[in-house]
């Protein structure tokens, strides 16, 4: 009996090992087969030209292309502009890394020596430069008959430079200068042959201003009336952090705005995501959706604070010109829209101080504000600081100082801030409390606690006449990972900040959405 | 007693210590002045910026010129500090901006203008296009970029002498520099040839540069035909020769210009032949026809010029020829084909046989003559016995043999 059993065990072991061995061989062969069938994309055989990536886009406007040499062709002009800006770009990169890469392509033999000498000097003395140019206004002076040589005057180039000596910032500033530039066409590249810096060309700058809102002392004035912001941060319930995506629906927004207006509020805050809107080349369809939203806000008598650069976090000087083109497109598109109260440059930039460097973030903000004011002087500008401590930065650049507050000592911190910034309107741009109490946070606040919190806050606002914008109208079903990360206790908390729950029922806190 | 003394001394000590310590952190106000007042230099002059300062810590000078920026460290002597601008900055003309920074704050700013040095001038010249057309409408442009010995463009308004030579003319124009350059359009003259140019600035000369003035577009011309006889013998060659083709300024057009000859025959069929010019003359060839023919010949330089039309007549050479059937009509001997002096036609004269059966063409056989003779062989393997119609053509003569019986 046991002999038979042993025999059967051996037999089955043998069969199983045979099957396993075969399986392994098949697996190995299939892996070899897969490996041999993967590789370069077949389209690469065609050797189609590489799409060049736009890396440097300072505002460039040819003020004149009239010249005594010969008329310039559109194609040549665009190639010339591209190569000229590339010359600046490779120069900026070279001075940043003290590496000669790329200079040969855009500077002739005799001109590149000038760069090499400085790069060697800077390398020896441990100097590093972060630089960019913000605006160019070239004026064509001469284009030769054989199409091989151009001379132009680049008027009032705005240069930003930050120099590091032994890794410490030693100099940071902008200046304007005019350059006389001569370029030669060599090997298909327009290369700089001569460049002579000159004092800036005096020019009158006339900009028509019809401000929709102004700031006087500490008050915002709209239509000649003092305006106190009583607002809310707004995302539609279905599409948090993706308001202008595929599910964009004007009927939902229309209803929501009606509700917001009827609950006694006068302002909303919306967000424009940098990447989602197409970075330097802003997508037109997104702008159309923003316009529809703004029109609806206007219809319901709501003012809008538009937060730009949401989910952006680079701030490097090399990235500036791309960011500026993004802002330019959006700001110029809506510069005449009455519904907008203010441009909020960036949401909670102080949270990036540690990872990106405080200086980087602050100069990014400072020059972004300058750039936005170049294109739009009709609307106010603010920055949505996360903490009251950070809000003291750049007060001279903004019209309104905005800060967020999720801590427990509001009155105290507010008084302190008011003392530090006595001359600008202050807006509590985000505040609120989550009513999440569950598996991931058993000791959290209940809906009742939330209501109590808002009641208390509203009392303070009324007493001290504080401008506020609460977070947020709705409880959300899904929170994108990019907002608070993927940890469940964070996500679940973020889902329950609303005044209206997931089923559309008004929560107890709704009574205190405004002081009405 | 001792204890009491301590008690009295202690408050005093405390006051002394406090007053001393309160003195130490008191900040002296920063006071920096520029001593160097000069703001205009010529290239390579030493630039030393001197300041008086009551502080010498963390002071740097930012420097920026046409091409680059840098940070300079000071030399400190007592209460004066000085910065020597490195010579790769002093050599370059234009605006030199500087900023004195103390603890990363800009304290003083200034500007210096550096003008080109009076050292030896280097003259760079660009000339193009390098080939133009005669006549005075086309031009080459000379762009002159004079620079000093440190590769800085010379001062605006510096005089540049632009010379050009053509045949016996030598001309000089004086052009002041503007926007870094001086330039001049050199127009072609009526004759073709070569224009030489150079430019002089501050007694330095550029290289000699040249542009070739090519003849302009050809104007209409004449052609004539040459042939050894006017017989259509299919053997001799007729020549078509153009007159000397010239442009409107009487320049002989460039060698190698392609001339296209179009020949129209009696049936309005176009024959073409080509030739390129040498010294303005193009010579093309065409084989004589083998039958009576009239040709109308004209020549064109495509898109530019054309010639008159020449008419040529060719006389028939073949009057008649014999045909002999042998081998049960399966071998057909043609000939002798005789030419205009009764000599046998030149070898290679074409003879055509069209073979019909039941009124439909079965085959066309083409043979060429040898010593005036040729033969067609109709093999029984291909052509079964029966009744055929045979038509034989040669030199414009057609002979028909209806209902010819081919046997086994």
From TrEMBL, chain A:
InterPro entries in UniProt: GH (IPR017853), Glyco_hydro_2_cat (IPR006103), Glyco_hydro_5_CS (IPR018087), MAN-like (IPR045053)
Protein known as: Cellulase (Glycosyl hydrolase family 5)
Bilayer-spanning residue ranges: 12-36
Pfam families: Glyco_hydro_2_C
Source organism (scientific name): Tenacibaculum adriaticum
PROSITE patterns assigned: GLYCOSYL_HYDROL_F5
Keyword Disulfide bond: no
Domain Glycoside hydrolase family 2 catalytic, residue spans: 326-453
GO molecular function annotation: hydrolase activity, hydrolyzing O-glycosyl compounds
Keywords recorded for this protein, A-Z: Glycosidase, Hydrolase, Membrane, Transmembrane, Transmembrane helix
BP terms from Gene Ontology: carbohydrate metabolic process
TrEMBL record, chain B:
InterPro entries per the UniProt record, alphabetical: Ig-like_fold (IPR013783), Invasin/intimin_cell_adhesion (IPR008964)
Top-level taxon: Bacteria
Gene3D superfamilies found in the cross-reference section: Immunoglobulins
Record SUPFAM superfamilies: Invasin/intimin cell-adhesion fragments
Name the UniProt record assigns to this protein: Uncharacterized protein
Native source species: Tenacibaculum adriaticum
């Amino acid at each position: 009996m046991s002999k038979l059993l042993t025999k059967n065990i051996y037999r089955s072991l043998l069969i199983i090992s045979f099957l396993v061995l075969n399986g392994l061989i098949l697996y190995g062969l299939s892996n070899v087969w897969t490996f041999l069938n993967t590789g370069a994309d077949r389209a690469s055989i065609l050797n189609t030209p590489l799409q060049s990536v736009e890396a440097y886009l300072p505002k460039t406007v040819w003020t004149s292309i009239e010249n005594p040499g010969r008329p310039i062709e559109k194609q040549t002009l665009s190639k010339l502009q591209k190569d000229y800006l590339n010359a600046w770009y490779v120069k900026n990169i070279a001075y940043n890394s003290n590496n000669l890469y790329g200079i040969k392509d855009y500077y002739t033999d005799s001109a590149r020596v000038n760069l090499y000498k400085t790069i060697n000097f800077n390398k020896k003395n441990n100097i590093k430069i972060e630089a960019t140019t913000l605006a160019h206004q070239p004026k064509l002076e001469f284009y030769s008959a054989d199409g091989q040589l151009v001379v132009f005057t680049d008027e009032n180039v705005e240069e930003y430079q930050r120099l590091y000596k032994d890794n410490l910032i030693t100099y940071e500033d902008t200046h304007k200068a005019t350059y006389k530039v001569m370029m030669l066409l060599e090997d298909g590249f327009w290369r700089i042959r001569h460049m002579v810096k000159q004092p800036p060309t005096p020019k009158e700058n006339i900009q028509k201003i019809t401000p929709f809102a102004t700031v006087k002392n500490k008050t915002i004035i709209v239509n000649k009336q003092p305006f106190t912001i009583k607002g809310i941060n707004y995302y539609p319930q279905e599409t948090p952090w993706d308001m202008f995506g595929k599910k964009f629906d004007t009927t939902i927004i229309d209803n929501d705005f009606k509700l917001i207006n009827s609950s006694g509020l006068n302002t909303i805050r919306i967000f424009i995501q940098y990447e989602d809107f197409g970075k330097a080349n802003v997508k037109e369809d997104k702008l159309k959706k923003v316009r529809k939203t703004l029109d609806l806000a206007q219809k319901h008598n709501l003012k809008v604070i538009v937060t730009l650069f949401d989910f952006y976090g680079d701030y490097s000087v090399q990235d500036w010109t791309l960011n500026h083109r993004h802002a330019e497109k959006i700001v110029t598109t809506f510069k005449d829209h009455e519904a907008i109260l203010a441009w909020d440059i960036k949401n909670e930039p102080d949270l990036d101080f540690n990872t990106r460097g405080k200086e980087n973030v602050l100069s990014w903000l400072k020059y972004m504000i300058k750039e936005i004011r170049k294109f739009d002087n009709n609307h106010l500008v603010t920055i949505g600081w996360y903490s009251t401590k950070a809000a003291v930065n750049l007060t001279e650049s903004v019209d309104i100082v905005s800060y967020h507050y999720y801590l427990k000592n509001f009155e105290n911190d507010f008084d302190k801030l008011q003392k530090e910034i006595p001359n600008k309107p202050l807006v509590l741009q985000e505040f609120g409390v989550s009513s999440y109490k569950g598996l991931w946070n058993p000791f959290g606040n209940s809906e009742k606690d939330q209501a109590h919190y808002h009641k208390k806050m509203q009392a303070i606002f009324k007493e001290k006449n504080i401008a506020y914008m609460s977070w947020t109208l709705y409880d959300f079903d899904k929170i994108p990972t990019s907002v608070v990360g993927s940890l469940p206790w964070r996500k679940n908390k973020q889902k329950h900040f609303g005044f209206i729950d997931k089923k559309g029922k008004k929560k107890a806190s709704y009574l205190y959405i405004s002081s009405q | 007693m001792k204890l009491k003394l301590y008690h009295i001394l202690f408050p005093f000590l405390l006051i002394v210590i406090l007053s001393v310590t309160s003195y130490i952190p008191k900040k002296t106000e920063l006071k920096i002045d520029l001593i160097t007042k000069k703001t205009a230099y010529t290239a390579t002059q030493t630039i030393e910026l001197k300041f008086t300062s009551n502080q010498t810590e963390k002071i740097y000078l930012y420097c920026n010129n046409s091409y680059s920026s840098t940070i300079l460290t000071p030399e400190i002597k007592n209460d004066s500090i000085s910065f020597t601008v490195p010579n790769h900055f002093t050599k370059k003309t234009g605006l030199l901006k500087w900023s004195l920074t103390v603890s990363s704050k800009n304290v003083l700013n200034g500007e210096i203008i550096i003008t080109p040095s009076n050292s030896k001038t280097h003259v760079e010249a660009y000339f193009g296009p390098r080939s133009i057309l005669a006549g005075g409408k086309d031009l080459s442009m000379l762009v002159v970029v004079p620079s000093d010995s440190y590769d800085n463009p010379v001062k605006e308004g510096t005089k540049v002498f632009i010379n050009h030579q053509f045949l016996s003319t030598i001309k000089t124009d004086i052009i002041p520099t503007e926007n870094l350059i001086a330039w001049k359009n050199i127009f072609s003259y009526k004759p073709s040839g070569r224009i030489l140019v150079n430019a002089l600035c501050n007694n330095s000369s550029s290289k000699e540069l040249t542009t070739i003035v090519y003849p302009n577009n050809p104007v209409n011309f004449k052609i004539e035909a040459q042939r050894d006889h006017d017989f259509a013998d299919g053997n001799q060659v007729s020549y078509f020769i153009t007159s000397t083709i010239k442009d409107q300024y009487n320049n002989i057009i460039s060698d190698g210009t392609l001339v296209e000859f179009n020949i129209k025959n009696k049936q309005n069929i176009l024959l073409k032949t080509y030739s390129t010019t040498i010294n303005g003359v193009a010579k093309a060839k065409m084989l004589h026809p083998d039958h009576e023919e009239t040709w109308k010949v004209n020549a064109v330089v495509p898109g530019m010029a054309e010639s008159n039309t020449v008419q040529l007549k060719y006389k028939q050479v073949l009057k008649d020829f014999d045909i002999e059937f042998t081998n049960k009509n399966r071998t057909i001997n043609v000939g002798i084909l005789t030419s205009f002096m009764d000599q046998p036609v030149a070898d290679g004269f074409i003879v055509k046989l069209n073979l019909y059966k039941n009124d439909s063409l079965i085959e066309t056989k083409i043979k060429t003559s040898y010593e005036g003779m040729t033969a067609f062989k109709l093999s029984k393997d291909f052509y079964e016995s029966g009744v055929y119609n045979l038509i034989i053509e040669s030199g414009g003569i057609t002979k028909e043999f209806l209902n010819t019986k081919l046997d086994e």
